[in-house]
Amino acid sequence: MEKNYNPSGVESKWYSYWIENRFFESQPDDRPSYTIVIPPPNVTGVLHMGHCLNNTIQDILIRRARQKGYNACWVPGTDHASIATEAKVVGMLRERGIDKNTLSREEFLTYAWEWKEKYGGIILQQLKKLGCALDWDRTNFTMDNDYYNAVIDVFIDLYKKGHIYRGVKMIHWDPKAQTALSDEEVIYKEVKSNLYYVRYKLDTDKEEYITIATTRPETILGDTAICVHPSDERYHHLKGMYAFVPLINRRIPIIYDEYIDMTFGTGALKVTPAHDINDYNLGLKHRLPIVDVLNSDGTMSKAAELFIGEDRFVVRKKIAKQLEAEGFLVKIEELMNSNGFSERTDAVIEPRLSMQWWCKMPHLAKPALDAVMKDDIQFYPAKFKNTYRHWMENIKDWCISRQLWWGHRIPAWYNEHGEFVVAKTEQEAQQLFTEKYPNHSFTLKQDEDVLDTWFSSWLWPIEVFKGFTNPDNAAIQYYYPTATLVTAPEIIFFWVARMIMAGYEYKKAKPFDAVYFTGIVRDKQGRKMSKSLGNSPDLLELIDKYGADAVRFGILISSPAGNDLLYDDKLCDQGRNFNNKLWNALRLIKGFSVTKDGYENEFATRWFTARLIEQRLQIDELMKQYQISEALKAVYKLIWDDFCSWYLEMIKPDFENPIGSATYQATLNFFRELMITLHPFMPFITEELFQEIREEKSTFTSICNTLLKDEIHFDQEVLIQGDLLIKLTTSIREVRAKNQMKPKDEIGLYYNTANDTSIEAIKKTLTRLNYLNCLIHSEKPEGTIPLTIKGDTYYIQVHREIDIEAEIKRLHDELNYTRGFLTSVNNKLSNERFVANANPDVVKKERQKASDAEKKIAALMEELNRLKAKK
RNA sequence: GGGAGCAUAGCUCAGCUGGUUUAGAGCAUCUGCCUUACAAGCAGAGGGUCACAGGUUCGACUCCUGUUGCUCCCACCA
Fold first, then answer.
1. Helix or strand or coil: residue A23?
2. Interacting residues of A217 by C-beta distance below 8 A, sequence separation 6+
3. Which residue from A170, A173, A46, A184 is spatially nearest to A536, judged by alpha carbons?
């Protein structure tokens, strides 16, 4: 074996081996299932740190489930991501000099599919580098033929049930992508804007004005009223009056409504029903006309009368100048306010009135809310239940149509008069049309729009098993409900909530038992990783540099449950070092020469046997609670500290001496068990080392399909002895360090407890003791340093002048500490109410603590006096 | 504006339903070691008024209230 572990080559070798031997494939059988559906990454995506965290966690859950005897199935796939992909394709076409507007729908879709075939699989390939144990035969895409039909069928079904309708409402418009967005796709950001104070001339004989304040002066051209608060005395005299919109002189009424905030600006609001949701509502209430001054691309429309065809932001500046020139602009103030941006294109959102398709939510939300509140579906961390409840209780109708081509085309058919039917095919539509509108003409045209991406992804846990296409098939029966969904909290509404709704609506059952929400990956300064900051490392480069195991380790070890994690390359260093530690531990073991009568350490093997079981139970508990980074820490310590630092040092024979075959076999076996325990976290190196010590080379064995033992009983007593041994060893090393002794300097230990069998296990290697003597009570050795552990005293002989003053001080400090401790314990015990009220076990423990402390104090006193006498 | 969460060592965090010591870990720091698996290593050390102020209790890092500071989600302000 090389001196250092080198992951390159090893990782791809084992991934191929796993695939060739179909270890990740799953078919229904008599084992219980453990299923995860991957949150399908966008076809446009490349792997980033968020994916790394997310998929590593899923991989751990899947691999562990398989080790625990479940039939584990992890389903991969991608999401067509309508708006994001369409934007990419449009961009690609532009680079090639093709304008989307010159293409037919079919031509555009041909390009889009080409693009998807070329780039759509990249992200899945990258997951293989991470080691993900996905069942590739089950790969799904949200626009696969069956999946597409399932989405359309669900639309039709909900329409028939009366949950889907068409209507004109104020929606969020993305002028860049030129499509409607759902509420969830709008991100509000604080921006610095100007607040323009503009005066409107009143329709009187005198030179009278009313001044309003607005951040969007370009919409002045769409004003149809000015609104003030009914109890605002400043404006009482204007009742029933009119004003003129500056520049275009439209005569508009002054209206009164309690919606107005009198303290903002001048207390007078310009009302533009076409371009603001609140203004729209005011308009409805006061029956105001609507003047839509913007085109769909964000330029001024004909209705604006001025600046026609110019961009809204250009016009904002121009109109301010013109207002100023004509004496309408009173002043400009700076203001922080929040603007909506498109999640996908980052364009500033326009509230816009338009005809869209909607899905009513209340009846879908009800069972989905109950399931989470009653913990039928468990959220980890549970705090997200609150967020979820709040949204579900205030849920609004879902805008599901998008003015795009890439996606599931809405199955609605219209005649020339805008009358429509919903049907899967044109044929069906014609039939329906005849029935519905017997005397109308019908040259039918299908709706040009597609459905929101999430209207397909909410069916993911069902349709990846063909739960719509073939509802009674064996796979859906066996795998659904899935076990755990691992996802980011950002998409709790977009996706998680809606999958739960779809699950109850169409399967009458939850889609998953639990949802684990990961944190956000941030850089070490706590900033969110983003392209624009350039603080996101290239994952593939990281894997090349450190190996996937080390990267997995790095991202997990910093990842507390439910909190954001601060990633730093240093953590991958730690992971790489851990790899190397494992590698070298095996190098040591394999380097032993083994004979029947070589060195045996029966205590050490007993101790580690117990330790292994104890820690595995601990890891089980942590994993049950999804405390994944804590579980990894526990494995890490078990291997590094318990196995390498203590166990291996205990069983290491003297230089060039052989090890006994019993101890050797036990050690190999421990190592194998440790690899299995670690495997879900670091799959590649554990497979490599597992194969390295494998005995039967003939069968297609892998650590992937090796079961974890489920022992639950272990020897508590030997663990206590081990702790004592560790304490003693540490104390001896401390003496060495304090006395600045070289490794070669002679040192000896006297002990006096006959009942202590573990003492024999203090091998010279642990502390480099030159001799170990049991002594009889009466003859305490001279010139030694006393160590008091749990009331027993040990003596260390260092063969050099002892600094008695320093030793006295050390004993004194320890004595003081122990006395303080005893006092606090005694305070409790002398309190009658404590003894009366506290749990009897607690009282018993406190009594034990007191007597231990007393014993220790006595021993310390004795040694202190002896030292003082010598002085 | 509504809601949720966090505050423990220089940094990142454990410490679950009050009593395992007078609070732990990893990283970082310092000291000593090229000791025959690993310097990507070994051994040892230092470092905390558990944000602040009250309260409940025999007993509070842990429960309650308030204050301060930070984070997130939702609603959305012309």
1. coil
2. A196, A198, A316, A319, A320, A323
3. A46
- The one-letter amino acid at A56: T
Chain B: nucleotides under 7 Å from a protein CB? Answer: 2-5, 11-14, 19-22, 25-28, 31-33, 35-45, 58-59, 71-78
Give the alpha-carbon dihedral of A502, A507, A508, A509, to 10 degrees: -90
Q: What does pLDDT average to over chain A?
A: 90
Q: Which residue has the tokens 């001799």?
A: A771
Of A208-212, A442-446, A772-776, highest mean pLDDT: A208-212
Which residues of A spanning 271-330 put their CB closer than 7 angstroms to strand B?
276-278
Q: How many residues does chain A have?
A: 871
Using C1' positions and the CA of A831, the closest nucleotide is: B58
CB A63 within 8 A of CB A69: no
DSSP A749-816: EEE--TT-SGGGG--HHHH--SEEEE--TT-PPSSEEEEEETTEEEEEE-SS---HHHHHHHHHHHHH
Instruction: Tell me the pLDDT band of A749, cut-offs 50, 70 and 90.
Output: confident
CA of A333 to C1' of B8 (A): 45
* Cα–Cα distance for residue pair A597/A615, rounded to 1 Å: 31
A558 touches strand B (CB under 7 A): yes
Between strands A594-595 and A659-660, the pairing is parallel
Residues 729-758 of A with CB under 7 A from strand B: 729-730, 733-734, 736-738, 740, 743
* A353: Cβ contacts below 8 Å, ≥ 6 apart: A168, A169, A170, A171, A274, A280, A290, A292
Q: Are A493 and A55 in contact (CB under 8 A)?
A: no
A683 CA → B50 C1’, Å: 38
**Bridge partners (DSSP) listed for residue A35:** A73
pLDDT of A605 reads: 94
Which residues from the 505-534 window of protein chain A have CB within 7 angstroms of nucleic acid chain B?
Answer: 524, 526
3-state helix, strand, coil in chain A (%, to 5): 45, 20, 35
Predicted-complex ipTM score: 0.94
Q: How far is the CA of A604 from the C1' of B23 (A)?
A: 31
Instruction: Quickly count: other Cβ atoms within 10 Å of residue A309's Cβ.
Output: 12
Which residue has the closest alpha carbon to B20 C1'?
A: A845
Considering only residues A269 and A853, tell me which one the structure prediction assigns the higher pLDDT.
A269
A393 touches strand B (CB under 7 A): no
CA dihedral angle for residue A813, residue A815, residue A820, residue A821, rounded to 10 degrees: 110
Instruction: Give the start-end residues of each E strand in A217-360.
Output: 225-228, 242-244, 251-256, 268-271, 329-342, 350-359
pTM of the model: 0.93
Residue range A405-413: average pLDDT? 97
Q: Is the CB of A830 under 7 A from strand B?
A: no
Q: How many angstroms is C1' of B75 away from CA of A216?
A: 21
* Angstrom distance (rounded) from CA A195 to CA A193: 7
